[in-house]
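#struct-pred
JK: can someone run the complex with zinc ion? inputs below
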Amino acid sequence: MTDLNVGCESPSAAAATGSDDPAKARITEILPGILLLRAELPFALDHVNIYLIAEDDGWAIVDTGVDDARTRAVFAQLLEGPLKGQRFSRLIATHHHPDHIGLAGWLCAEYDLRLFTSLSAYLASLTLRGNPERLGRAFYAAYYRRHGMTAAQAKSLQGWPEHYRELVGTPPPEFTRLLAGDRLKLGHREFEILTGDGHAPEQLMLYCAAEGLLLAGDQVLMRISPNISVDPTGPESDPLGHYLRSLENLRGRVPDGTLVLPGHHKPFRALHARIGELQEQHRQRLETILRACGDSELSVGDLVPVLFSRPLDGFQLGFAFGEAHAHVNRLVHDGRLKRSSSDDGIRYRISPD
Ligand SMILES: [Zn+2]
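RT: done, C-alpha cells with the ligand placed:
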C-alpha cells in the first residue's frame, strides 16, 4: 500500500490552512505506511494520537480516542476522504484509559475489526464499563476520606466510575490477547510487543527494532509526565515502583535515537534523556514528601498541596491525589515511610528503622 494519496500535512501546515475537513487537517504521515491522526479530547489534555499502520489488506489502527460523536465522525470521514476506497484491518489498543480504548466497541462493530490488546486492558475496560456498581460512589468516597481528603473534595470526585462509562463504549465481546515478547507483523514491519506498568497495568508498546521505531502509548511522553496513580482498588500497591522499573527495562531494551511515537504530543528521539528526566522528577517528589513528613504524621490528603501548589479542579484533584499516594506508597515499599491506621484515617511518618 504505497500508492497513497492522503493529502498529508504537517501539523503546522494543517493549522495554517484552516481546513474545514477535520479528518484531513489532522493527518500527518510519519513514515511511509505510518500515519498520525490527532483526535480531539474533551479534557485539559485536548488531543490523543491515533496511529494508522499499513497492512496488505488495510490500515491497522493503534488507539481510538474516546467514544463520542466527534471521534466517530473522524473515522467515518477518513474512509470517505483521505483513505477513500481503503479499509481498516484491525484495532490495537495500548491500554484501558478512555482516550486509548474508548471507541473500541464502536470501531470493531462498525468496521468488523478484531481488537488486539493486553488482558489487563481488556478486563479493566470490561469491568469499569460493565460493572460500575462495584466501584460505586460510596467505595470511592470511603477511599478518599480514609486517606485524608476533605468531605467536600471527596464528594466532587464520586462520579469517577460513571465518568469512565460516559467516555468508553461497551468493549467488543472478543479480543486477541497480546503479551510481552509476542511478535506482530503489520505490513512489512515486524513489531515486538513490550509492556510497561505504572501508568496503566500491562500497557502495550510496539517496537520495530529493524526500523528503530517505538509506539510507546503513554509510557513515555515528552511534554507531560505520564500520570502514575494509586487506584482505589489497590490502595497499598506500588505503581510508581512498577513504573520506575518499567522505565529502566525500556532504557535497556530500546536504544537511544529510536523514533518514539507517543500517545500525546509530537514524536521524539531523545528517549534515554527523557527517561532520565522522568526518573529525576519522581525522585524529587519522593524527597519533597520525606522533607514534609519531618517529625509529623501526614495523610495523602495533607501531601497533595505540598506536591501540587497550583489550584486543582475536581478532575485534576483526582489525578493529583492518586499521584501523591503513588509516591507515598513507593516510600512505604522501600521502608522509608511507615503507615499507621486509626479510626481517624491512614497517615504516614518517617520510618524509625
Ligand atoms: Zn493513559
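RT: quick notes.
The pocket of zinc ion is lined by residues 95, 97, 100, 199-200, 218 (CB under 6 Å).
The two ends are 63 Å apart (CA to CA).
JK: thanks, will look after standup
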